[in-house]
């Protein structure tokens, strides 16, 4: 998958999907090791070259909350 990269800084099994639209660049984060299938746990419009630290912290928190169930 040329537009998908592993995000080990979030968790093993977490990936970033990169999408370029007419109005900007978007990032979606999903998890593939869940028992319920693929979990999409965060998405945002990217405004900088590097993923902001506050977005990474939010992604870690959301994934952690989803995996508790």
Major sheet, described briefly? 4 strands, antiparallel
**Helix/strand/pairing category:** alpha+beta
User: Any idea how many domains?
Assistant: 1
Q: How much of the residues is beta strand, in percent?
A: over 45%
Strand order of the largest sheet: 1-2-3-4
Q: Helix tally?
A: 1
Q: What is the averaged pLDDT score?
A: 88
Instruction: Write the H/E string, N to C.
Output: EEEEH
The low-pLDDT segments are: none
- Approximate helicity band: 10-25%
| Global Rg | 12 Å
| Head-to-tail CA distance between termini | 29 Å
Categorize the overall geometry. globular
Beta-strand segment tally: 4
Describe this structure in words.
The chain has 1 helix and 4 strands. It has 69 residues and is an alpha+beta fold. The chain has a 4-stranded antiparallel beta sheet with strand order 1-2-3-4, with helices on one face. Strand 1 and strand 2 form a beta hairpin. The model has no long low-confidence stretch (mean pLDDT 88).
Keywords:
globular; 1 helix; alpha+beta; 69 residues; four-stranded antiparallel sheet
Short description:
The chain is α+β, with helices and mostly antiparallel strands and about 70 residues long. It is about 25% helix and about 45% strand.
Helices, strands, pairings?
Elements: E1 4-6, E2 14-21, E3 24-34, E4 37-46, H1 53-68
Antiparallel strand pairs: 1-2, 2-3, 3-4
